[in-house]
Give the backbone structure.
Amino acid sequence: MSEQAQRQKALTDAVILIPSLEPDERLPAYIQKLVESGFGHVVVVDDGSSQEYQAIFKRIEEIDPRVKVLHHDVNHGKGVALKTGYRWIQENLAGISGVITADADGQHTVPDCVHLAEELEKGTRALYLGSRDFSLENVPPKSRAGNRATSVLFFLLYGKWLQDTQTGLRAFRREDLQFMIDVEGERFEYEMNVLIACARNDLPMIPITIETIYENENKGTHYHPFKDSMRIFKVIIRGFVKFMGVSLLCFLVDQGIFNLLNIAVFDNKIAKAAKYIFLATVIARVISAALNFTLNKKVVFRQQGGTGKAALRYVALAVAIMGLSASGVWLLGQIGMNSTLAKLIVDFLLYFLSYRVQQKWVFITPSA
């Protein structure tokens, strides 16, 4: 097959999905270019636009038989609009290679969509992310700062460095449609949930460099910088906040049981006998560790099944963390650092490591 034929097949087999709320005249022109470029399917989801915008959607639907417009009676949010499109594609388009999502505000060029279609045709299962260059002068400061902050935070908590965490130009294979539908989220935070779900399920995320376009400083977008940024940050840190809450609770349980044993059982003998200190410490730590394991499994990481293996991995991690903590404090002590400060630094870093290891190894869901 010639290169031209391969490219045409890639476009024919791909679906462009565009969620839209009250679009301007750029959207019909954009869809016209997509159709002219050879894309086999274009699906537009009207997410509750008011009546005055229906003429635009009518014109879009009349561009070509390959264009389908779906409607929401009221605005539900970008996440819901994307899932509406995914379900329609899943039920009506059987032979496609995959789905490319694009925004309705003109940020994503037709050549960039073509590039993603060609990547889909290669057959590698992954989430392809159109990645913008935020070092360019035309990028609004709020967009540059927001993306850099989310990139750093995402890397710390999920171990994947993504230059553009908020890109709307994405592509994935048809076999991952149900996976995308099952991801939680209704509005802009849905797209961040997708990245988290991919990181947790080891679905590769591959950045594809695209043109960086911000027309009129991106004033046409329905993205609200403060409200939607806060929603996205909450999504990123939600699991870690639960993890910290469980840790604090178990610390209080550990301290409470130790002191309860001292007062009610050992009659304040702990201060006088090492065996009572050891016994109270072990009992308190076993109970608090069991609680920590259970809450992390069910509440933080929501693992289904696999309790026995997860428990063994949890114990192995706890032993390893203790060894790393002692070794780290010793090493920093060799260069002259105060042991109290060294322990604070080492244990702070190990806390993030523990979260990551529990997320990726201890509480993984067993394969069916």
